[in-house]
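User: Hi! I'm working on a homework problem where we have to compare a predicted structure to a textbook description. Could you give me the structure for the chain below?
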Amino acid sequence: MKTAISIPDEVFDVAEKLARRQGVSRSRLFSDAVREYVARHAPDEITDAMNRVVANVGKSGADFAVAAAKRVLTHEQW
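Assistant: Happy to help. Predicted structure tokens:
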């Protein structure tokens, strides 16, 4: 989807340089940046990611690690 946004010149300049250095388009850079921002700030996404990690740890047979992770995560505020 095409869209138009306004950003400060200094942000644009830094993004332009980073895109060139990484060999990606500005569109790709901004799309990746927004995707990462949304993932970091969406509580459901964070919880889903943590659940996937815990599920994978459980599959490895490391019972101690699973128990430790559950103890720690049970006491964390989300």
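For your comparison, note the following. DSSP finds four helices and no strands in the chain. The two ends are 33 Å apart (CA to CA). Good luck with the assignment!
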